[in-house]
Amino acid sequence: MRYLSPLYILVLFLATCVGSPAQTNGCADRLVIESQFVSPLGSTYVPLDSWIYPAIDRLHGLGYADMAYLGIRPWTRMSIVHMLAGTVDEIAESNDSEACAIVHSLQRELEPDVENWNGQHKPNTKFESAYTRLSGVSGTPLRDSFHLGQTFVNDYGRPYQEGFNNITGFSTRSVAGRFALYFRGEYQRAPAAPGYGNVLSTLLSNNDLISFAGHPRQATIPSGPIPAANDFRVVEANVSYLLLDHQFSFGKNDRWLGPAQGGSLGWSNNAENIYAFQIDRVEPLYIPLLSRLTGPFRYQFSVGSLKGHSVPNAPWIHAEKINFKPTENLELGFGRTVIWGGKGHVPITFGSFFRSFVHMTNVTEEEKNSRNDPGARFSFFDFSYRLPFVRNWLTVYSDSFAHDDVSPASAPRRAAIRPGIYLSHFPGVKQLDFRAEAVSTDPPTSRSTAGGFIYTEGIQLQGYTNKGAILGDWIGRESKGGQAWLTYHLSPEEQVQFSWRGAKAAKDFIPGGTTQNVFQVSAVKRIHKEVEVRGWLQYERWKAPVYKQAGQSDTSVSVQITWFPESVK
Question: Is residue 221 part of a domain?
Answer without folding.
Answer: no
